[in-house]
Amino acid sequence: MEALLSAKQVQELLNVDRTTIYRMLKDGRLTGVKVGQHWRFSAREVNDLLSSSGAHLSKMNLSSPVNVLSLHCVQPVQDVFAEIAEVGAVTADKDGTPLTRISNPCDFCKLIMGSAEGHQSCVASWRKLVEQKEPAPEFTTCHAGLQYARARIEVGGELIAILVAGQFYMQSPNAEEEAERLRALSQKYHIDEYLLAQAARNIPVLDDRRISKISGWLERVARTFEQISLERADLISRLRQIAEMSVINS
After folding, report:
1. Rounded to two decimals, what is the model's pTM?
2. CA gap 124, 142 in Å, rounded
3. What is the C-alpha separation between 51 and 34, in angstroms, rounded?
4. Sign of the C-alpha dihedral, residues 112, 113, 117, 119?
5. Closest CA to 137 of 82, 188, 213
6. How far apart are CA 99 and CA 82, in angstroms?
7. Residue ranges of domains in the chain, CATH in brackets
8. Which of 102, 74, 100, 13 is nearest to 49 (CA)?
9. What is the CA radius of gyration of the chain?
10. Tens digit of each residue's pLDDT (9 = 90 or more) over 67-120
């Protein structure tokens, strides 16, 4: 009996949303059968579709877990976390390169990231977080003077990405020191000093209790991303086995 996949499983494998799945069903790119109130799709047909798009499962490098980090699932979870925690957040790879768009960025960081040099400095800061030895999040000061931390995202014992959160002060900055820092940032990244100073006024100052909560939430969201990755890896592995069995039996 041919293996069938649910719409959710096909969505994960093709890395598209549910609407696209049903659009493909309607225009003939996918065929399905109705089982009760739900559609089911041929695992072999989905494999053929992946092959035709240049993503043949037999050639997919499953030893690299980043291939199974489902970013279209990660992004909305990250967005909700950042909004609830009232911090900025981003998921980056082991080189510090962002894999997602930044969630809930503050105006100050928007100005910094809007500069090519500033963006590169942020990536370098995220890369330093990857190099931290402690497994738990540790808040530290970024190149622009704000606090942030990371939680490790691991699959199969291998680090595949980090979830970064922050964009706040731990204590109110000294006025003279902040003015000097903003002046230096303005010159380095070619940003209007007045705009940068105005944006800096809205950077929140968080107490230890709030910071501890954010650290805990950061870890929990990272564990959620790991679970998403594991489930996607399992689906891909099973589909590859089905494809290999189909070749043997053909």
Report:
1. 0.72
2. 10
3. 25
4. positive
5. 213
6. 16
7. 4-55 (1.10.1660.10), 67-229 (3.30.450)
8. 13
9. 22
10. 667 888 899 999 999 999 999 999 999 999 999 999 999 999 999 999 999 999
